[in-house]
Write a structure and sequence with these properties.
The chain is α+β, with helices and mostly antiparallel strands. The strands form two sheets. Strands 3, 4, 5, 6, 7, 8, 10, 11, 12 and 13 form a ten-stranded antiparallel beta sheet that branches. The chain is globular, with a radius of gyration of 16 Å. About 25% of the residues lie in helices and about 35% in strands. The longest helix has 18 residues, at about 1-20.
């Protein structure tokens, strides 16, 4: 029950933050990159390059033998073809969450498509090729330009880069990147 409540809370946070549109700071200027290209070429988990979207097998092969998922968890939390489940490092929960498209009729690690990943705590940490926790907000803006949206809750400023199905969320505290908390490429059904 505790796992279910944790996952339910995580899903609620994703949908709440995705809906935040306060303080829109979009400059209207076109970017000189595509967010889809960042998701496919620049995302790292614990410094290991990964590509989103990918099959679950591709993700686990890229990350190596120390990373795993709980097979039962994948199937326990399927809702309308989507499943949210934890990434494990050396059998310890990273508290990083994978969102995947799962065909319940024909599901194996080669058909489960990872669409999204929310950063872990001690392991399973998201970084980008040129941006990670501890970097300055200025470095983030220099590399990725003005965000599509910002939301400030008084303690953390959430900035997002969005384009079509693609989404990157970066959490800023005191003008420093606290974490790259969420990367998503949602497949249109």
């Amino acid at each position: 029950m505790k796992k279910f409540l944790t996952l339910f809370t995580a899903v609620c946070m994703v949908f709440c933050l995705a809906g935040c549109k306060e303080n829109n700071t979009s400059s209207g200027e076109p970017r000189n990159y595509k967010i889809e290209d960042v998701l496919k070429n620049d995302v790292k988990i614990d410094g290991i390059p990964v590509s989103i979207p990918c099959t679950l097998n591709e993700l686990l092969e890229a990350l190596g033998d120390d990373y795993s998922v709980d097979n039962d968890e994948i199937y326990r939390f399927i809702y309308e073809g989507n499943s949210l489940f934890a990434l494990y490092y050396k059998n310890e929960n990273t508290y990083g969450q994978l969102m995947a498209l799962v065909d319940t009729e024909n599901a194996d690690f080669d058909t489960i498509i990872v669409e999204s990943y929310m950063s872990g705590r001690d392991n399973g940490i998201i970084s980008l090729s040129d941006l990670s926790s501890g970097d300055s907000l200025d470095k983030c803006l220099e590399k990725y330009g003005e965000p599509s949206n910002t939301y400030d809750d008084g303690e953390i400023t959430y900035i997002t880069y969005e384009e079509g199905n693609c989404f990157i969320q970066i959490n800023i505290i005191d003008n420093v990147v606290d974490e790259i908390s969420d990367v998503r490429f949602i497949i249109k059904r």
